[in-house]
Amino acid sequence: MKPLPSFTHGFLFLGLLGITACKKPALQQAPPPIVTFIETKKTDVERSTVFVGQLDSPQNVEIRARVESFLDKVAFTEGEEVKKGDLLFMLDEKPYLKKIASAKGDLAAAQAALTRSNIDVPRLTSLVSEGAAPQRDLDNAIASQSSNKAKVASAEAALEAAQLELSYCEIHAPLSGRIGAKQASVGSLVGKGEPTLLATISQVDPMWFDCSISEVDFIRADKVARKAGYKLGQLPLTLILPDGSESESPGKWVFKDRVVDPTTATIRARAEFANPTGVLRPGMFARVRVSLPSRKGNILVPDRALTELQGKEFLWILQSDNTVKQRMVNVAETRIGSNVMVLSGVEAGEKVIVEGIQKVRDGSKVTPKPFAPPGPDSQPPSASKPPGKPKTDQNIDQNAEKDKAGSSATESAPAAEQPTP
């Protein structure tokens, strides 16, 4: 038998390869991507606006030496609280004791002269009536009596002035408060030429919070309050200290200026806070949060669920058949912690994709899992502006007219109801 040609072997080899290839299993289709979702619900959002300002005392009283003398004693501890009437300083009294002694001598001499005049006038009156003395003598006696009365009054006034100057040598606290550093040392000559500043006392309870409110924020906050049946001055105030802690004592507005400063477009305002512990000090910078009436029935979603395209914002909605659909929504500019308020486009009970949105497209199938938010410690305590936008100390909602609430405020939702990424 003739051997097969070599090209015949080649065809057989290729045929076997084809058969082998046909026996390989087909490629499996990738499973739907895993995404996480939340089910939306209506949430009451508490709103507030924050103003930055500075603390001041209702009374800052300068303690000055009213008479010239040497400082003998400092009777207080610098920086401590003092009570009204407490002795603060003692000045050398000796010069004023001498003045009092001299004034008493002058008064005694004037009183003696007046006593003599009081005797002479009746006696001369009788003599003149009998023709035993000339009228001129009586006239002189009456004039001398009047002069001596004036001298007595002058001497009494001089004595009172000397006693008053002596009283100024003891300087007492005119009010209760915290006293600052002494401005003069023992042995210093004070009060020469003009009253010398010795120390300053500041009233510490209550304390004032002074701030400037922009005219826009003032109008918006006032509208929110009036819509809820309040006046702006009736809304609760919370003082936030520089370390972020809050004062335990609520405050109240005590002053709002009658005019707007045309150079800054702001209104000066003042709030008052109790300070029983004395932790608040004049000059301290702080913030005041004005609690506005809460908004009812709002839908919040994590801001990471939002996608933006050509200036419009969208959410991915999970359908009942586990497909997703992209939907354009209208959201408020102000963030609620890490969440955003949806004004329109989503109803309560719908499911919104939070994580995995980069894996989906409109109409695609997904494998949904409930979104597990982090613990409450990771949630910001109050509303803030979205990233990339300027921060303000008076966080007023810029979507007041957009959501037809007629209001503007920083907003925050209760942690138990708020979906937090």
TrEMBL record:
Residues 390-405 have a biased composition (Basic and acidic residues). Its main location: other. Residues 101-168 form the Multidrug resistance protein MdtA-like alpha-helical hairpin domain. It holds the Pfam family RND-MFP_C. Residues 363-421 are annotated as: Disordered. GO terms for biological process: response to antibiotic. SUPFAM superfamilies: HlyD-like secretion proteins. GO terms for cellular component: cell envelope; plasma membrane. Residues 299-359 form the Multidrug resistance protein MdtA-like C-terminal permuted SH3 domain. GO terms for molecular function: transmembrane transporter activity. Residues 60-201 form the Multidrug resistance protein MdtA-like barrel-sandwich hybrid domain. Residues 206-292 form the Multidrug resistance protein MdtA-like beta-barrel domain. InterPro entries: MdtA-like_b-barrel, MdtA-like_BSH, MdtA-like_C, MdtA-like_HH, RND_pump_MFP. Residues 370-389 have a biased composition (Pro residues). It is found in: Cell envelope. PANTHER family: ACRA/E-RELATED COMPONENT OF DRUG EFFLUX TRANSPORTER. Belongs to the membrane fusion protein (MFP) (TC 8.A.1) family. This is Efflux RND transporter periplasmic adaptor subunit.
